[in-house]
Amino acid sequence: MTQLQQARENKITNEMRRTAEYEVVDPEVIRQLIADGFAVLPKNIKHNIDTPRVIGKNLDVKVNVNIGTSKDYSSFEEEIVKAKVAFTYGADAIMILSTWGDLRKMRREIVELSPVPVGSVPIYDAAVRSYRENKKVIDFSEGDFIEMFKEHAEDGIDFMTIHVGVTNDVVKRLKKTERILKIVSRGGSIVSGWMLENKLENPFYSHFDEILSIASEYDITLSLGDGMRPGAFVDGTDDLQLEELFVLGELVKRSRAAGVQVMVEGPGHLPIDQIEMNVRLAKTITDDAPFFVLGPVVTDCAPGYDHIVSAIGGAIASMHGTDFLCYVTPAEHVSLPTAEDVKEGLIVSKIAAQAVNASRKRKRAYQREKKMAIARKEFNWDEQMKLSIDKGEKLKQYREKRPYSEEGCSMCGPFCAIRIVEKYSDGK
Question: Per residue in 21-38, pLDDT tens?
Fold first, then answer.
């Protein structure tokens, strides 16, 4: 039985109990959220997860990290290093988006290594196999859509992005769109290209019942991909995006009816003033399904700083109900990220999540802020490092770069506001 099916039968699983401890809530809260479809607990029956995570309504905002090879730069060893960096700095989930090398070996090894849920995009495999055979990227069969999904399930993948909302009706609009960047979703473009070439409906959509059957067997959480997400600031919130979203709303209902956990992916590039509307609209159309967004990226004019740009969008989106943030690295739109890029991207997304979690009085996040305030008051630098999202690395670097012999720091020296007030308020 899936986590959803067990929740509906009033069964609290071991994973539900462990996630409840992490969230500092009663396990019954987690069970009810999953039963209602307002939260998901990605856990393939073949993956032994040390630290399961639950994603959804009224819970801590979670952060996902993407890793993966490309044809131009393929080093599985480096991807392992990136994965370990992600785990070290608190990733709540990791996705393998490799498009070169031994894809199945990579998946299996990352699943074996990962203490958190692992996600993937199965359509990539079909495209890579075609390319390696000197065929067109989209030159594969309808059955390959299902075969790849089943293969990833067997490999222990916990949640999968499938671009099932890219239907014929949506693709027809693509031909008339005034978008500058028509499709920026790699999976969405592969599926659309296949449909246009073969003049057939999206197999993920036409064979959705078969997908649901496999997902139910392995307890795969479906992540309904936003193949038509806007990929530029000026393309935000158009008919393509919204048409696909209505399809995803329909598929959320079908997934829940089949006892399959499901979440919905959201837009990538949006003006700040459109974020709240997009989140509320998605939550309404999908009946409060967990919402998973890339960014959103709120300006396209900061290449090399897209991790910061997306953290701004992520914080705003999370304040309005987004449950799951996909990190963005400084290398986004420019190159394959390094391990250091992964670290930077994850840290800024974790900062955004912490800011929102604390403001909502989530217990762990709020207590962390309170402990940090006390540590600052007491000039307890060791405690501040322990509480820091980057494990105190920057703090330590700056302390060593500009040392100060007394309490406080070299910014204010003897004119430290904290020291002055503490001294005279104590009557000294």
Answer: 999 999 999 999 999 999
Spacing of C-alpha 376 from chain mean position: 32
- Whether pLDDT at 72 is above 70: yes
Q: Which of 186, 306, 202, 298 is nearest to 251 (CA)?
A: 202
Reference 63, options 296, 254, 324; nearest CA is 324
- Under a CB-based contact definition with an 8 Å cutoff, are residues 242 and 201 in contact? no
Distance CA 187, CA 183 (A): 10
Q: What is the dihedral of CA 377, 378, 383, 389, to 10 degrees?
A: 10
Q: Who contacts 399 (Cβ-Cβ below 8 Å, separation ≥6)?
A: 381, 409
402 HSE (CA, 13 A, CB side)? 9
Lowest-pLDDT choice from 204-218, 368-382, 403-417:
403-417
Omega before residue 52 within 30° of 0, cis: no
When the pLDDT of each residue in the chain is averaged and rounded to a whole number, the result is 96
Take residue 360 and report the two structure tokens written for it: 């909502």
Residue 405 has pLDDT above 80, yes or no: no
Q: Give this prediction's pTM.
A: 0.95
Average pLDDT over residues 382-406: 93
Range(s) for CATH 3.20.20.540 in the chain? 3-357
| AA identity, residue 29 | V
What CATH fold (topology level) applies to the domain 3-357? TIM Barrel (3.20.20)
Straight-line distance from the first to the last Cα atom of the chain, in angstroms, rounded to the nearest whole number: 67
